Amino acid sequence: MRSLDKLKNQSFPSVSTDEWKVKAEQSLKGKSVGSLQTTTYENIILKPLYSRQDEKAVPDYPGGSDLRRGIYPLGYVTNDWKIAQRLSCCKVEELKGKLDHAFEKGQTAISFNFSKDLLDANLWRELAESYSQYPFAINANDAHIPLLSLLENTVEQEVTRDKISGFIGSDPVSQFAKEGYISEEFVKDWVISIRSSSEKFPHLRTILIDTAPYHHGGASAVQELGIAMGEGIFYLERLLEAGLELDEIFAKMIFQFSIGSNFFMEMAKLRAARILWNRISDVYGASCDMAKMQIAAETSSFTKTVTDSHVNLLRAGNEAFAAVAGGVQYLHVSPFDHLTGANPSSDRIARNTQLLLKEEAHLKTVVDPAGGSWYVEHLTNELAEKAWFFFQGIETHGGILEVLKTNWLQKEIAAVYEKRIQDVQTRRTSIVGTNVYANLDEKVTYKVPQAKNSFFATREDTFEIDAIPDSRLAEPYEELRQKAILLEEKLDSKPFVGMICLGGLKQHKARLDFMKGFLAAGGMKAVESNPIFSVEDARQFVLEQPAKFYCFCGTNDQYETMGHDILNALKTENPEHTFYLAGLPEKEKQTLWIDEGIRQFIHVKSNCYETLLSILSALEVSKVEETKA
What is the spatial distance between Cα 407 and Cα 397, in angstroms, rounded to a whole number? Predict the structure, then answer.
């Protein structure tokens, strides 16, 4: 007992930041602590350590001050978030069956992918009357106007209308950005529809600010927030002009965000969104209760992959956790295989992800789990300030519609997307199962993209703009894998690169393993030689494994002692072959290697995508030439 008491009374000595820096730099072997800093796509510099010195004054509890900590004093303890899994179905009867099953298994909101086939009066009457205990969570897109009209005509009893809650909304501006057309007349019709339904459905939100199209175009968190505020202001002004009361407009709004893979950034994004909207509501003079931002969130499609799709389970779980910790009111978690077609099992797993966060991670019982974190609060402040500056830029350029008409906004988003995609291509950003740790034995089913049928293209009053593409980070590598599959069908074997392994296994294994992973990202395999100690060994391997491409693998010493002789002999005898070298020699030695016939040095900073694309394209051309011959 004495030893235990002594242990309990011990404490760690306090350590200053300077002392920590000394220890850290010892571990870094000469590098400065500053080398651990990273710059995000939001141009925010992340420090390796946050301390009490970074502490900023924040509200003492959720529901207070700038609302960063949430809109309810007790968070999810009194106001649990709604599990709003979007069901996929085309027929009315199928939808009702899926809804009943989903509610039985834990769903808590009426949510489904809406289509015009579901504009059925009987369906909506039953939804309003038989499912009134559940709120709606529906993005009606371009069918919003006829849907609200149908709802008004179908649900006639005032008592039933009062029970309808949640949101059935649409965001014309984000639809414009997605489809590449702007229709001012459509906005006018939309405003009339909102005004008409406002009094009839007092508890239903109908004004949706949906940033998903911008997120899927590659926008940074700063841009998403700035755009959300720009759209919010646009709708506020239009609806005020139409005669709606300020508090009435705020009470009809809901914001929808896609949640990406940067856990803390996405958490801070939601917190910053409430700060910004609270600032705007203060400027307009809205009442506190009406102006509290309601947030619907969905896990991102931008981060998901077709290849090794089960990894999407981890991605979606991480994103859902960030959404809940950030403070949302509605959440949809995408099934891991939704890109190729979800099934009942994957739908169940997606729904259960939220139930796990509620029941096993106990997030519904913790009030603002991120509150008070020096890092999260600092990041929240930085995001809010930068997003406000971006929002001001939108307003300076004429507002949200004008920046879309001039393509200013599209260019701003495209610049961030290019940075993101460059990092993916060079594998600075890892996508497990796609550009790193790819599984060559995986049988991948690629969904044929459906032709885009734009609703706005059929209208005569439209103004054409550059559409923001609906993209994913993994797409470049998935296209490589498709190329490799097509080549395999033509060649009757998987495309490969021969590995000239210099020295024993211990000498060449590290770079051989690197090359195997490098090539697998493009659907190609590495065919390795036996240990090579002479020119004759290399010749024999080339004869046994005739290929268009070969790569040297070994240590730097072996490259110098035997690599040059082998390369010169092989290049002289096989001038049509292309040779690579794994690793990056010292700068003064690179010219000699290139002169002797090395096409490219492949190393950790190489553009993996471009290298693999050049190899696959050359193999395609070679096969076409063989066929013609």
Answer: 11
What is the spatial distance between Cα 191 and Cα 183, in angstroms, rounded to a whole number? 13
Residues 380 and 337 in one domain: yes
Residues 491, 379 share a domain: no
**Planar angle of CA 261, 266, 267, nearest 5 degrees:** 130
Per-residue pLDDT, averaged over 130-155, amounts to 93
DSSP state, 563?
I
Domain containing residue 44: 16-49
Backbone φ and ψ for 371, nearest 5 degrees, come out as -60, 135
* Structural domain total, the chain: 3
Residue 8 has pLDDT above 80, yes or no: no
What is residue 1's predicted lDDT score, i.e. its pLDDT? 52
Do 40 and 94 lie in one domain? The reply is no
63-76 pLDDT, tens per residue? 888 999 999 999 99
More confidently predicted of 298 and 16: 298
Q: Is the same domain home to 147 and 269?
A: yes
Which of 112-121, 537-546, 581-590 is predicted least confidently? 112-121
The pLDDT assigned to 453 comes to 63
- 292 with 344, same domain: the answer is yes
Please indicate, yes or no, if residue 133 is contained in any of the structural domains.
yes
Give the pLDDT confidence score for residue 625 in this predicted structure.
Answer: 61
State yes or no: pLDDT of 335 exceeds 60. yes
pLDDT band at residue 2 using 50, 70 and 90 as cut-offs: low
DSSP of 386-451, one letter per residue? HHHHHHHHHHHTT-HHHHHHTTHHHHHHHHHHHHHHHHHHTTSS--BTTTBS--TT--PPPPPPPP
For 351-358, which contacts have Cβ atoms below 8 Å and span 24 or more sequence positions? 351/83, 351/85, 351/102, 351/105, 351/106, 351/107, 352/106, 353/313, 353/316, 353/317, 353/320, 354/83, 354/85, 354/106, 354/320, 355/83, 355/106, 357/320, 357/321, 357/324, 358/80
Same domain, 22 and 114: no
Non-local (6+) Cβ contacts of 516 within 8 A are: 525, 526
Same domain, residue pair 327 and 402: yes
Give a yes or no: residue 63 inside a domain: no
DSSP secondary structure code for residue 502 in this structure: B
Clarify whether residues 309 and 268 are in a common domain: yes
